């Protein structure tokens, strides 16, 4: 039986691919693995059956035989660990690729989420206009550092890895802003990720659910 992931019955992004099931779909596509998707409503996500799989009532989850996983990072790492194509074989290179996954989730994504969530939660308050430039600067600080490290390389550490999958997925959250404009190498990096056939398949699959 192929693994089953969960995704929004209807993503609030209307098919932009920003919900995290796209990351799991992309990893499965890179690994050439078939998968099934179980769509869940916001209501169902908060019910005991889903909370047993995802204690925080979120998507995605991943079920394969008697293994049930939550947290996109853990899901992508599991897929990358079990199948070829997403992590180097050589032990040190593999450890470095995993470090980039953590860097994407723990170092680069937090200020991006902070900006999104602040705008969402306190939208309309007059002081938001004073806060936003501060939040943007925090994002730019990380983008500058990432841009310096990437330089003119195609990927963060040798060939494409799960570290790049996660970093590109995180940076995609900035596409609706102009924050990537000052970093042409990062914009090109994101475009390289989006151009991968596996990403295109993952994006198209989520679009099929969410468009219209
Ligand atoms: N740390 C967890 C993981 O990485 O798996 C976070 C999972 C998570 O945030 N899931 C979100 C969710 O289920 C969907 S992806 N939210 C419902 C809830 O918490 O009640 C985050 C997301 C949602 C919507 C958009 N969007 O509309 O643009 C983008 C990203």
Structural commentary:
The model has no long low-confidence stretch (mean pLDDT 96). The radius of gyration is 17 Å and the shape is globular. The protein is of the alpha+beta class. It has helices spanning 21-30, 42-45, 48-51, 72-82, 91-121, 128-150, 162-172, 184-194, 197-210, and strands at residues 4-8, 36-40, 61-64, 67-70. Helix 1 (21-30) runs parallel beside helix 4. Strands 2-1-3-4 form a four-stranded mixed beta sheet. It folds into two domains: 4-86 and 198-211, Glutaredoxin, CATH 3.40.30; 91-196, Glutathione S-transferase Yfyf (Class Pi), Chain A, domain 2 (Up-down Bundle), CATH 1.20.1050.10. The two termini are 31 Å apart. It has nine helices and four strands. The structure holds S-(P-nitrobenzyl)glutathione.
Strand order of the largest sheet: 2-1-3-4
How many domain regions? 2
- The helical percent reads 55-70%
CATH topology assignment of the largest domain:
Glutathione S-transferase Yfyf (Class Pi), Chain A, domain 2
Q: How would you state the average pLDDT, rounded?
A: 96
Overall geometric form: globular
Biggest sheet features: 4 strands, mixed
**Tally of DSSP helical segments:** 9
Q: Estimate what percentage of residues fall within beta strands.
A: 5-15%
Instruction: Calculate Rg over CA atoms.
Output: 17 Å
The CATH class of the largest domain:
Mainly Alpha
Q: Hetero groups bound?
A: S-(P-nitrobenzyl)glutathione
Q: Total strand count, please? A: 4
Low-confidence stretches: none
Structural class: alpha+beta
């Amino acid at each position: 039986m192929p693994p089953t992931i969960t995704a929004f019955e209807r993503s609030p992004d209307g098919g932009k691919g920003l919900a995290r099931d796209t990351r799991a779909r992309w990893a499965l596509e890179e690994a050439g693995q078939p998968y099934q998707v179980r769509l869940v409503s916001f209501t169902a996500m908060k019910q005991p059956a889903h909370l047993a799989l995802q204690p925080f009532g979120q998507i995605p989850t991943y079920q394969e035989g008697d293994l049930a996983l939550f947290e996109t990072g853990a899901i992508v790492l599991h897929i990358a660990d079990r199948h070829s194509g997403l992590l180097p074989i050589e032990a040190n290179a593999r450890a470095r690729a995993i470090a980039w996954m953590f860097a994407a989730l723990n170092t680069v994504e937090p200020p991006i989420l902070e900006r999104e969530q602040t705008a969402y939660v306190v939208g309309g308050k007059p002081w938001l206009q004073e806060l936003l430039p501060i939040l943007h600067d925090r994002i730019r600080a990380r983008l500058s550092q990432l841009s310096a490290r990437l330089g003119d390389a195609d990927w963060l550490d040798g060939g494409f890895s799960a570290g790049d999958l996660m970093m590109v997925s995180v940076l995609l959250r900035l596409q609706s802003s102009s924050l990537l404009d000052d970093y042409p190498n990062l914009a090109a990096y994101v475009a390289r990720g989006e151009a991968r056939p596996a990403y295109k398949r993952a994006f198209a699959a989520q679009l099929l659910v969410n468009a219209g």
